[in-house]
Structures are given as C-alpha cells and as structure tokens.
C-alpha cells in the first residue's frame, strides 16, 4: 500500500490495479476473485439493492434475464440468482468480463442452472443484437477512464429493456482508511488490500459521476461511500 497519504481531490487514473496486470501472479489473482464474495458481503450492500430495485421488477410469468458486466469471479451473478430463486423467481444470468482469466475462474466454479459466463465487452453484445431485462455491475466503473464511462452507459441503454444499476465505491478519505483497516487482517495472500485501497482512489465522487452520465441516468448514494448509477429504459 502507498505509504504517503493520497490526494483525494481528483481520481487516480495513472496507477493500474494489480489484478489488471496480464502478468500478475495467477494464484493470487484467483484468491482475489475468491475473496470478492466476502468483500462484497461487507461493503457492497447488494442485498438491499436487490430488494429495492430488482425484486419488485421480477415477474413470475416468465424467466427474466440479467447481465452482470465485469463479473470477475462471478460472485454477484451467483448471489443474485440465489436471491431470485429463494424468492420464487426464475432468472437467467450472464456474467461477462473483459479478462479471460476471470471467466476461466468463474466457469471453474460449481455450475448452476441459468448461470453462464463469457469473455466479452458490452459493445460486442450490443452489436450481436442481445438484450436483457436487467444490467448490473459492481466495482467496474472505477476501472474505466472518464471517457469510457459514457461509452459503457450508452451500450447499456442499447442492451437493456429494463433497469440498469452500476454500483461502486465513492472516493473519500474515510472509505480509504476504513477499507485499509478492515482488509489488512481479513484478506491475505491476494490483491484485495492493495487493489481495494487503490480502487477508492480511482473511484468517483457523486458530482463527477453526475457530470459524466448522459441524460436519463440518476446518481444516488444508497449507503455511505457507495454510489449507484441507475437508468430505466423508457423513462426520461
Ligand atoms: C474489481 S473487479 C469486480 C468483479 C465483480 N464485479 C465483483 O464485484 O466481485 C472488476 C472487474 O471488471 C472487469 N472489467 C473492467 N473493465 C471492464 C469492461 N470495460 N468490460 C467488462 N469487464 C471489465 C475486470 O476485468 C474485473 O474482473
């Protein structure tokens, strides 16, 4: 971890995460994917987002489809499928990731009906004419440059006939310090501590995300230090 106190006044866009290095240690990368499940249980708040935003829109008369962009090891995709099944809904979930190592890891986990993974970018799916009822992403926006964010959001507008939800950290010194304190004893032998603290520095503030988002996208802070970028098809 960086020993000097970082500058939080702007996004860190020049220091890449270890997990994005094509030559990084594969064993540690796979431990990182494995530990995302616990990280997300601790910091991401997806159960509340699922209950507020997705469950009320699920239907019992047909299976609905959900795309998880930047799925990593697939923990959120699996979790959403589990919650939907628990609530009696049939959901088909596709997780995509730009990194083939993530897809390889996700596909090596126990299979589950309705769940699939593919190495792909959102633009490829759009050009292939694919459509989904829901799109989600978790901890992906901060991997993108400012210029890439509106491109991803335009792809989502074309791909989604329902609601799209991008959830990420909000850049803040307290989020940085809090995550470092939490992660140091819990997540060892992986990239979680280094990449997690760097992710806070790479992430957006609410006003920055609002400025980048095209018309029709809404930015909220559902929990402290978390931002949710939402779009609903057919709504101005
Ligand atoms: C921090 S990980 C989060 C993984 C997962 N969403 C989770 O919360 O456990 C970010 C993932 O996004 C992927 N990613 C980054 N940019 C992407 C893009 N433009 N399209 C698809 N995946 C992307 C990375 O390869 C990485 O696996």
TrEMBL record:
The keyword NAD does not apply. Residues 67-159 form the Methyltransferase domain. It holds the Pfam family Methyltransf_25. InterPro entries: Methyltransf_25, SAM-dependent_MTases_sf. GO terms for biological process: methylation. Gene3D superfamilies: Vaccinia Virus protein VP39. Signal peptide: none annotated. This is Methyltransferase domain-containing protein. It comes from Deinococcus radiodurans (strain ATCC 13939 / DSM 20539 / JCM 16871 / CCUG 27074 / LMG 4051 / NBRC 15346 / NCIMB 9279 / VKM B-1422 / R1).
């Amino acid at each position: 971890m960086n020993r000097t106190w970082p500058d939080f006044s702007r996004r860190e866009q020049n220091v890449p995460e270890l997990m994005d290095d094509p030559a990084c240690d594969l064993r540690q990368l796979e431990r990182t994917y494995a530990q995302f499940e616990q990280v997300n249980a601790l910091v991401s708040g997806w159960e509340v987002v699922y209950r507020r935003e997705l469950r009320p829109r699920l239907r019992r008369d047909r299976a609905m489809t959900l795309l998880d962009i930047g799925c990593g090891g697939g923990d959120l995709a699996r979790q959403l499928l589990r919650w939907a099944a628990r609530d009696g809904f049939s959901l088909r979930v596709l997780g995509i990731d730009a990194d083939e190592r993530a897809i390889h890891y996700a596909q090596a986990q126990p299979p589950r009906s309705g769940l699939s993974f593919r190495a792909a970018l959102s633009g490829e799916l759009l050009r292939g004419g694919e459509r989904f009822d829901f799109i989600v992403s978790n901890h992906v926006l901060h991997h993108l440059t400012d210029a890439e964010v509106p491109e991803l959001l335009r792809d989502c507008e074309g791909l989604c006939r329902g609601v799209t939800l991008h959830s990420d950290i909000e850049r803040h010194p307290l989020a940085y310090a809090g995550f470092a304190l939490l992660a140091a004893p819990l997540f060892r032998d992986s990239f979680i501590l280094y990449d997690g603290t760097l992710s806070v520095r790479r992430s957006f503030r609410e006003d920055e995300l609002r400025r980048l988002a095209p018309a029709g996208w809404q930015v909220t802070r559902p929990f402290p230090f978390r931002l949710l970028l939402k779009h609903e098809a057919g709504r101005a």
